[in-house]
Amino acid sequence: MAGKKQFDMDTVLDAAMIQFWRSGYADTSLDDLSRATGLNRSSIYSSLGDKDALFLRCLDRYATRYGDKFDAALSGAAEDPVAAVRAFFDVTLGRIADPAVPDGCLMAQSVMASPALSPSVAAHVKELFAQQCPRLRVALRAGGMSEEEAGDFAVHVAAVNQSLAVMGRSGSSPEQLRAIVGVTVDALARALGPVGPRESSLRE
User: Fold this and answer.
1) Distance of CA 96 to the CA centre of its chain
2) Of 20, 37, 111, 143, which residue is the least packed, with the fewest Cβ within 10 Å?
3) What pTM did the predictor assign?
4) Phi, psi dihedral angles at 146 (to 5 degrees)
């Protein structure tokens, strides 16, 4: 059919996302994106926009994909906040262990690369990155923490979560990463108190 796109948009965006994730924004050229997606430059521009536009689409795709997983993990926080936070970390540990994706975290490395980004792209990166703490704070409040405690623990859990990506990229073993998670989960369980399912979750 005339005018019909001869490629699958989801496949192309995933390929571009992996390229940005593997090499970073600054070290990803249009030629790299062309090789990764199988599209020539003119097709990239006409269908996906310039490099900044494509990068933003990839960031949003990444944030939605893993954000949905984090939300699902934390959905049971009202019943068992310790298990919910453990499941939250499992999302990151699963991503780190997935051979189909690069090491590290696309969002974290993009924040670190903010000086090389245009102001509008850098602002969007920081906006997406900042979604993690509110997500955790709401879950911890649902689990019974005070506003202040939930805020403090949300920042801590988010920081540990990002450190897992860095540690994983540096070669830390799965056992070492799970030990890091265990320290944070144990601290959360002590702060909440061993009540009902929280106690059994801690012993798992």
Assistant:
1) 10
2) 111
3) 0.87
4) -70, 165
| 159 Cβ neighbours under 8 A, 6+ residues apart | none
All residues at 6 or more sequence positions from 89 whose CB lies less than 8 Å from its CB, including other chains: 160, 161, 164, 181, 184, 185
DSSP code of residue 152: H
Name residue, tokens 């390929």: 15
Residue found under tokens 């499941």: 87
Q: Could you give the angle at the alpha carbon of 17 between the alpha carbons of 16 and 18, nearest 5°?
A: 90
Per the CB < 8 A criterion, the answer to whether 36 and 16 are in contact is yes
DSSP structure string for 64-113: HHHHHHHHHHHTTTTT-HHHHHHHHHHHHHHHHH-TTS-SS-HHHHHHHT
Residue 58 burial (CB count, 10 A)? 25
SS3 assignment, position 4: coil
DSSP state of 49: -
Task: Please report the pLDDT score of residue 194 as a whole number.
Answer: 60
Provide the 10 A C-beta neighbour count for residue 149.
16
Q: Is the pLDDT of residue 169 over 90?
A: no
> Which one, of 159, 154, 144, 152, lies nearest residue 192 by Cα?
144
Structure tokens at 118: 């245009």
